[in-house]
User: Which sequence fits this backbone?
């Protein structure tokens, strides 16, 4: 499998995500995307480095299994299924996502790549995924969907990190894993508190504070 | 020494968690805070002798920021036992653990010589401060915590991407690990310009979110409004200073690469925007804790504005960091006292504080006058010099806008403050058992006193430290291996 093919699948999953209204499916897409991301270093032929193999296993385990598992468990407890009237509608979200992906291609074109870089799509795909994550984060009401958005945003950063993973493994690996693991862990705790305090994870309840 | 500054507060945090008695646990805070300050003062003697390739260590800039944070922490820590005694219903275990961990991680950030380490420190600082916001355990504080975490995490994720962009800028130019700040600044000419610019923008947005620059400040009024005044003081003077330092590190590299103009325009823009935004939301603000949050947005704006002007203004922006932290602690802690006495933080319910809690009322009033630039307090010196720096370096328009905004904010804030302090008592007000005691006011008086002293006299060693810190952010002095020389260097800095 070529890395470009995997990246294309990731971009496709971005579009599927913004168009879905079911929280369960959103979590599923995040899991699939996590596995796809994990496979890219192998497709890039980096499997010979032991530390990158560890990273691959960790990424697939955390992004593809552990976090989706936790999210699904939380979902099961709150008995919600659908994202009800999001701040930005699904059709408009899709259009925004397409626009963001297009802009990412332009932006990626403006940033020069080091001579000899094989996977040219990494930078635009990274920016597009980042944008998609941000879009989901700001346009959805359920705390769980917002966490999915945060995960997708992290995936975008991971994609960019792959450009540097051979030269600066320490920086990239600690940064990404720490951000992801700790971030989601703490959000999980807060979601739990929201659930017990409000008996649901709809962040519309969290709208008392304003000017 | 470097490690001790980090490890000691973390050990104290674990100890605080394990101590069974709430009384002893609360007393551990001032003890650990003052010991940290002592260790820091000893470590300060060596700030000039940092090895070039060190991963951790105090340079002038880090030392200055950490000194501010450590003093602020001491003020809050001495206030804490009395405060926690007023809240016996709350479990203080996680609270003390988070407070002390914050001190340890701030020490890590101040001493980090690698962008990756600095980022890790900033990330963990966000996480350990989140439980502090949830101290009151009600719906409102939960909402504030969720916003703080979500917005903060997005900001910090963008800063991570910025850090990776910076690494790629170095990689592009053939510069490989270890990418510590010294090497990045020394070889700044090798860095790829488009990547460096993109890195700076991402870090500005990312760390700017943590600082609370408009329009990325939306978590701030909620978080500061719902936490105890003690936490508000620490967030407004400590966590924001950490994010500011992380941003300054990247800025130093950008300046060393000769891209100062690009970065400065952005900083001035964000600075002015934050001040405008803060002023708009301060007008007729009924919630006086939220008003303080907007004041914090304003002062973050002043900090980046000063850095953007450069030269004299940049030096006094660093000075303003200390002035802001000290006066903000007075404001947040006295606001906390008033809140406790009235069991409300909304205007019609809270009026005439000067009669009910005279000391806190006076401190709140004096804190307000100090933060808006009344001499002889320290913020006057910094705000005056930042304005002077702007007007004398060809930023006439920006300087004039800065002065106008300061005046506007003074008027906007004064309406709320005067009603809280002097207003005629309303029928709706509630009376609680709280009354001012020396334990809840003495730390504030000390903080206000320090702000007044700093406004009149800056001790020589501190002056040297500040001068060198200002040179570091100007990208001029990437490496210092010799002991500090007399502060003649600043005279050589040409004012553009």
Assistant:
């Amino acid at each position: 499998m070529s890395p470009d093919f995997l990246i294309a699948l990731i971009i496709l999953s971005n579009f599927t995500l913004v168009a879905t209204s079911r929280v369960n499916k959103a979590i599923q897409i995040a899991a699939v995307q996590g596995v796809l991301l994990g496979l890219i270093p192998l497709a890039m032929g980096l499997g010979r480095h032991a530390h990158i193999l560890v990273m691959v296993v960790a990424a697939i385990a955390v992004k593809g299994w552990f976090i989706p598992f936790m999210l699904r468990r939380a979902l099961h407890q709150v008995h919600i299924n659908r994202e009800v009237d999001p701040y930005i509608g699904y059709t408009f979200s899709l259009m925004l996502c397409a626009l963001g992906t297009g802009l990412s291609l332009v932006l990626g074109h403006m940033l020069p790549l080091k001579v000899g870089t094989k996977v040219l799509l990494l930078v635009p795909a990274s920016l597009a995924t980042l944008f998609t994550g941000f879009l989901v984060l700001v346009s959805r009401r359920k705390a769980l969907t917002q966490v999915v958005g945060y995960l997708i945003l992290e995936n975008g950063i991971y994609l960019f990190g792959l450009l540097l993973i051979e030269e600066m493994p320490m920086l990239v690996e600690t940064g990404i894993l720490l951000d992801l693991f700790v971030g989601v862990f703490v959000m999980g705790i807060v979601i739990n508190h929201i659930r017990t305090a409000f008996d649901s994870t709809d962040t519309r309840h969290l709208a008392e504070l304003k000017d | 020494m470097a490690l001790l500054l980090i490890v000691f507060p973390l050990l104290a945090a674990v100890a605080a968690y394990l101590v069974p008695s709430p009384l002893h646990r609360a007393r551990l805070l001032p003890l650990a805070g003052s010991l940290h300050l002592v260790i820091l003062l000893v470590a300060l003697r060596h700030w000039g002798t940092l090895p070039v390739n060190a991963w951790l260590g105090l340079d002038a800039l880090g030392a200055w920021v950490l000194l501010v944070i450590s003093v602020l922490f001491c003020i809050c820590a001495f206030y804490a036992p009395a405060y926690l005694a007023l809240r016996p219903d709350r479990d203080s275990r996680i609270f003390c653990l988070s407070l002390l961990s914050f001190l340890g991680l701030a020490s890590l950030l101040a001493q980090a010589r690698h962008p990756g380490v600095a980022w890790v420190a900033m990330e963990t600082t966000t996480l350990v401060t989140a439980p502090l916001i949830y101290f009151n355990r009600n719906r409102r504080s939960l909402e504030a915590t969720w916003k703080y975490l979500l917005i903060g995490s997005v900001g910090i994720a963008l800063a991570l991407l910025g850090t990776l962009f910076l690494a790629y800028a170095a990689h592009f130019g053939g510069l490989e690990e270890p990418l510590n700040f010294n090497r990045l600044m020394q070889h700044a000419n090798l860095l790829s310009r488009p990547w460096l610019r993109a890195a700076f923008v991402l870090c500005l947005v990312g760390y700017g979110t943590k600082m609370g620059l408009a329009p990325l400040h939306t978590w701030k009024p909620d978080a500061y409004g719902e936490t105890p005044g003690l936490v508000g003081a620490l967030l407004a003077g400590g966590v924001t200073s950490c994010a500011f330092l992380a941003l300054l590190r990247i800025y130093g590299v950008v300046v060393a690469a000769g891209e100062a103009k690009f970065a400065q325009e952005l900083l001035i823009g964000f600075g002015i925007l934050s001040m405008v935004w803060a002023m708009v939301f301060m007008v007729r603000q009924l919630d006086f804790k939220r008003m303080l949050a907007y004041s914090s947005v304003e002062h973050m704006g002043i900090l980046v504005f000063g850095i953007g002007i450069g030269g004299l203004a940049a030096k006094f922006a660093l000075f303003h960091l200390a002035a802001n932290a000290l006066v903000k602690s007075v404001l947040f802690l006295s606001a906390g006292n008033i809140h406790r006495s009235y069991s409300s933080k909304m205007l019609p319910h809270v009026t005439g504080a000067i009669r009910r809690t005279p000391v806190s009322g006076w401190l709140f009033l004096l804190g307000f006058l100090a933060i808006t630039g009344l001499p002889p307090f320290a913020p006057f010196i910094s705000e005056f010099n930042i304005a002077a720096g702007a007007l004398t370096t060809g930023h006439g328009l920006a300087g004039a806008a800065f002065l106008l905004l300061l005046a506007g904010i003074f008027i906007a804030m004064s309406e709320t403050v005067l009603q809280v302090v002097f207003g005629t008592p309303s029928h709706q007000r509630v009376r609680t058992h709280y009354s001012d005691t020396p334990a809840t006011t003495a730390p504030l008086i000390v903080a206000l006193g320090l702000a007044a002293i700093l406004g009149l006299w800056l001790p020589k060693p501190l002056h040297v430290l500040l001068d060198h810190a200002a040179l570091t952010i100007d990208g001029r002095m990437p490496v210092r291996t010799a002991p500090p020389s007399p502060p003649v260097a600043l005279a050589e800095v040409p004012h553009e």
Summary: The radius of gyration of chain A is 17 Å. The CA atoms of residues 141 and 203 of chain A lie 5 Å apart. Chain A has a mean pLDDT of 86. The interface with chain B takes residues 110-112, 114, 130, 134, 137, 143, 146, 150, 153-154, 156-157, 160-161, 163-164, 167-168, 170-172, 174-176, 178-179, 182-183, 186-187, 190, 193-194, 197-198, 203, 205-209, 211 of chain A (CB under 8 Å).
